[in-house]
Amino acid sequence: MAEIYSKTQRAVRWYPPAYDIRVETVPVPKSAALSPAIPIKTLTSCLRSILHPDDAIVKITLAGLCGSDLHVYRGHEDVNDPLICGHEFIGEVVALGASFSSDATNRPALYSDLKLGDKVVSPFTVSCGECHFCRAGISCRCIHSKLFGIPDLPGGQAQYVRVPKAGGTLFKVDSITSLMPPGEEHTLADSSLLLLADILPTGAFAALQALQHPKISPWVNGSAYPYNSFVPEVMASSRPPALPLEDRALTFAVIGLGPVGVCATVSLLHLLAEIHEKSGVTFRVVAVDPNASRREKMQSVLALPSFPPNIDTVVVADIEDAKGVVARWTGGVGCNAILEVVGNNSALTLAYELVRPFGLISSVGVHQAPQLPLTGREAYDKNVSFDFGRCPVRSMLPIASSILIKRQDVFGGIGDQASLIEKVVGFEEAAEVYDLFDKGRCGKVLFDPWQ
Ligand SMILES: [Zn+2]
Ligand SMILES: [Zn+2]
C-alpha cells in the first residue's frame, strides 16, 4: 500500500476554449483545505487527499472516454477553467475518510462494508444514498449530485480520484460477481466493468423508462388505457378484457448507434425478450444511425449467435431506410417508443417523425442550449410524451450488472468485430483519441492510466 502515494500523478486535462487536451503531471487528487480535526483511518500520506470524512480515494485501473466528454471538449458546456477530464472510472479503494467504520449505523451499507483494497465501480455522478431522491431511487438528482470531470470535481482520466459521499456513490465489484454462478467469476472481463460507470446503465435506463412508461404499459401488461396503472375504485367493476396479443405487438426505434446506442439496443432486446417469454408479446426494433461504421458495429453485435432467434425483427438502418421500415411495419402509424441516444435537435426531429400518436420519446442524449425543435402544437397533436435526462446510474446498477454478465460476448472483448470496447490506450494517446472520437472515427476507447 505504501507505493500508492507519490505526490503527483498523470492526468488528462482539458483547456478552454475548446479542442485542447494535454497530459500533465498534477497533484494527487485535489489536496488543500483538510481540517486537522478530521480523523483519518488510513496512511498519513493520504492526509492531503481526504477533504471530508465521507470521501474515498480510488486508484484508477481503467477510465473511459465518453460521448458526453465531447461536450466539454468542443467548448459547449460554458466551462472556463481547465479541468481533469472524464467521468467513467473503475479502480481500487486506497484511502477512506473517518465515516467508514464498522459502527457506521443508519447509513448506506458501504460506510461499514467498504475496505481498503476493494475493487469498485463509480457512477459518473456523486449520490449520497441518503437524501429523499436517493431513497426514492432517483440517484441522478441527489441533492449532493456532482458530475466527475468538472472544475469543481476532478475527473477520472487520472491515476487517482477523490470520490465524495463514497458510501452512497460507489458500488463494489464483489456485489456484481456475487450475482454469478460460483466458479464463473473469471468470465467477467475487468474492462467490461468500466461500462457500468455510465453507458450500460444509461442504455438500460433508456429502455426501461420506455417499457415502464404509462404510454407503453398497455402493450406490456395487456391492460387497456386507463386501466394500465392505478385504477380508481369507481372504475374497477368496468375493467375491459385483457388486450389480445395481436393488439400488443411493440415497435421501437433506437436513434444513435454510438457506444450508448449499442448499450441501449442490447438492453432493450434483453428486456423485450423477457417480456416476450412471460407474455408472448412480439416486438420489432429499428436501430438507426447515419454513420456506416456505427451501423456495421451494431450489425456485428446482432449477428452474434447468442441473440434470440427472433432477431430478424431487428433492423439496422440509415435515416431514410428507417422511415421506410417504420412506415411498412406499422402501416404508417409509427413506433410505440423511440430511444433517443444522441442529444441534438436533428435526432429529436427524427424521433418525433418516427413516434406514433400516444407514443413516447425516451431521451438520454445530453441536449444543449438550442431551443427544442418542436412546437407545442406538434406535441399536442401526437399526444407525445417526452422523458429527458440523466440516468440514475447508482439505482440502475443491479439491472445493468445482470445485462453485463449475460452479454459478455458484446461487452467483454476488446477490439473484436462485435466488441463494444474498441481499444485500451495509455494517456499519451489521449489527444489523438479525443480527436478521432470527436470525428466519429473510433468507438469506445478506455484509458489505462498506468500504461
Ligand atoms: Zn459517460
Ligand atoms: Zn442523495
From TrEMBL:
Cofactor(s) needed by this chain: Zn(2+)
Residue ranges of every copy of the Alcohol dehydrogenase-like C-terminal domain listed in the record: 280-375
InterPro entries: ADH-like_C, ADH-like_N, GroES-like_sf, NAD(P)-bd_dom_sf
Pfam families: ADH_N, ADH_zinc_N
Manganese found in the keyword field: no
Domain Alcohol dehydrogenase-like N-terminal, first and last residues per copy: 53-167
Keywords tagged on the record: Metal-binding, Zinc
Stated name of the protein: Chaperonin 10-like protein
